[in-house]
Amino acid sequence: MNAPVRYLDHNATTPVRPEVLEAMLPYLRGEFGNPNSVYALGQRSRRAVEAARERVAALIGAADAAEIVFTSCGSESDVMAVAGAAWQAFDESKGARKRVVASRIEHDAVRGILRQLYRRGFMVAEIGCDREGVVGAEQAAGALDDSTAVVSVMHANNEVGTLQPIQAIAAAARARGALFHADAVQSAGKIPLDAKAWGVDLLSISGHKINAPKGVGALYVRKGVRLSPTITGHQEKNRRGGTENVASVVGLGAACELARVELERHSARLRTLRDRLEAGVAKIPGVRLNGHRSLRLPHCAHFSFAGLDGHHLVVALDLEGFCVSAGPACSSGASIPSHVLTAMGLEPELASGSLRVSLGWGSCDADVDAFLAALPAAVERLRRLPATARVAARSQS
Ligand code: PLP
Questions:
Q1: Which of 63, 277, 293, 365 is deepest in the core (most CB within 10 A)?
Q2: Per the domain annotation, does 178 fall within a domain?
């Protein structure tokens, strides 16, 4: 009989909660009106979208629901923020602002648009991080100048969970007249967010990381900030074209409301589970615990095991029913070491022996117990593989 599946990869994606699905269903059935239509059917959809906007605003600490723009995912929010701010500043300054600054550990959505901007003539400056994954605020301030259009630093890293000093970096950006974007895709719903108090201009979130469906996200755009649109059209007050994905937007709103109400209890529960899991894993010889010890997300842990390949460990654990990952889901199976671990200065051997475990709604003590029972033997088995077999198997993956 197959072992029960124990899902421990909530940084990759999360299940849709039943309450979220229930909230969405009417908008996948009879309530199919276009929220931009004037008749009653459309206006009911409009009201549902606006109620969801209020809920997203409340979770992230926006001053006004009108500051929330719905998008198709976290990646779109990131691109809309970084490219939209860069193009807008470039145009308004008649080409004087042509520098973009970002940390070296950003998600590929940000890294990809930085490469595009670079190819089109923008200067791109990258800020490094320390061995625990913290991006220095002073270093960030030093990378800025008066030609900077936008600065992008993630709130929490998706691999190691380390939190960044975004409030200080936002202040440094403001002092240079640049906009500041925080990718909060991994931190939203896990720890309190306060976009207004932190002084950020732009902040990205994604539905599928907080128990809403995949394919919906939001971007906080502080009142008064203007972006050159990446998807043109009149919806979302001319900020993002495309008929709103009403059902998913409603789901995102419901998930944000649940996350807001349950945040304190939920994160305390997950922190306790995570700390117990981590203490158990720390007993395995030759393991390194990655990420800052206190400035980090409460629900995830990241390890490096000397003498084995993290992808093999993921497969070995999958055979025993555990869903975990060796790196970000979007680059799973990639044989190059993660850019985050490289930026943190991890030795290549440790970087390639990495494992990320991320807990969430539904995770329980039995998951941690079962994982701690299975992991040491899996590590031991893989370490007994001759090094040549490890390399050969890896180069075929
Ligand atoms: N930013 C971060 C930090 C992420 O972890 C992810 C997804 O893993 C994204 C952005 C992209 O979000 P989405 O999958 O909704 O495009």
A1: 277
A2: yes
Nearest CA to ligand 1 atom 12: 74
Whole-number Å distance between alpha carbons of 392 and 397: 9
Sequential DSSP letters for 166-186: HHHHHHHHHHTT-EEEEE-TT
**Domain range for 379:** 6-14+263-396
Total residue count of the chain as it appears in this document: 397
Whether residue 1 lies inside any domain: the answer is no
Closest Cα to atom 5, ligand 1: which residue? 158
Which of 77, 104, 158 has most ligand 1 atoms within 8 Å of its beta carbon, as the pocket-test mutant? 158
Is 253 found in the same domain as 137? Answer: yes
Of 241, 258, 275, the domain-final residue: 258
Distance CA 114, CA 150 (A): 11
CATH number, domain of 390, equals: 3.90.1150.10
Ligand 1, atom nearest to 329 Cα = 8
The bridge status of strand 68-71 relative to strand 99-103 is unpaired
Per-residue tokens: 360: 């969430």
Is residue 95 situated within a structural domain? yes
The pLDDT assigned to 340 comes to: 97
What total number of domains does the chain contain? 2
List of the chain residues with pLDDT < 50: 392-397
Could you say which DSSP state residue 16 is in?
P
Residue holding tokens 């993002």? 240
What is the set of active-site residues? Answer: 330
Phi, psi of 103 (to 5 degrees): -80, 160
What pLDDT is stored for residue 117 in this prediction? 98
Can you give the pTM of this predicted structure? 0.95
